[in-house]
Structure formats: structure tokens, C-alpha cells
């Protein structure tokens, strides 16, 4: 005759392990992705802002005319990029 107490404990352990694999592991993976994504956004967003400001000032120094020419150049670039992305959108 087998020991029913060890079999019951093994069955409970197997069930708890299966439930954990289906609930805790995916939740932890999703949480890690969210945290690392927010951390990356906290580094990338300020870097992009500083890059935009630096490139604007650099172009303003070397483009003939006043600051309106730089605004016109950057505005044109963003309008063309926006029109391109608008044409690629899903209907």
C-alpha cells in the first residue's frame, strides 16, 4: 500500500505549481516589460527633446536669415513627414 499523504502532498504541489505557471509568471513578465518600457521612455524622451533643441540651434547658426528661416525649414520637414505618415495610415 502506498503512502497517501505523500501522494496528496505531491498532487497539491503539482496543482499549485501549474496555477503559478499560468498566473504569476505571465504577470511578472508583463510587469517587467512595463517597468523597463517606462524606464526607457524616461531616458529617450528627454534625449529626443535635447536633440531637437540642439539641432534647431545648430541650424539657426548656419542658415542665412533670421530665426524664421529655421522655423520654416523645420516646419516644412514636419509637415512633409506628417503628410507621409497620414498617407500610410490604415483607413
How would you briefly describe this protein structure?
The protein is built from two helices and no strands. It has helices at 4-62, 67-87.
Fold and architecture overview:
- With 91 residues, the chain is an all-alpha fold.
- It has a domain at 4-64.
- It has helices at residues 4-62, 67-87.
Shape: rod-shaped
Query: How would you classify the quaternary structure?
Result: single chain
What structural class should be given to the helix and strand makeup? Answer: mainly alpha
Q: How large, in whole angstroms, is the Cα Rg?
A: 29 Å
Q: Which residues sit in consecutive blocks of at least 5 with pLDDT less than 50?
A: none
- The pLDDT mean sits at 92
Separate helix tally: 2
Question: Into which percent range does the helicity of residues fall?
Answer: over 70%
Q: Report, as a whole number of angstroms, the end-to-end distance.
A: 69 Å
**Order of helices and strands, N to C?**
HH
Tell me the number of strands: 0
Biggest β-sheet, characterized? none
Strand-residue proportion: under 5%
Write the layout of secondary structure elements.
Elements: H1 4-62, H2 67-87
Task: Please give a handful of descriptors for the protein shown.
single chain; 91 residues; mainly alpha; 2 helices; 88% helix; rod-shaped
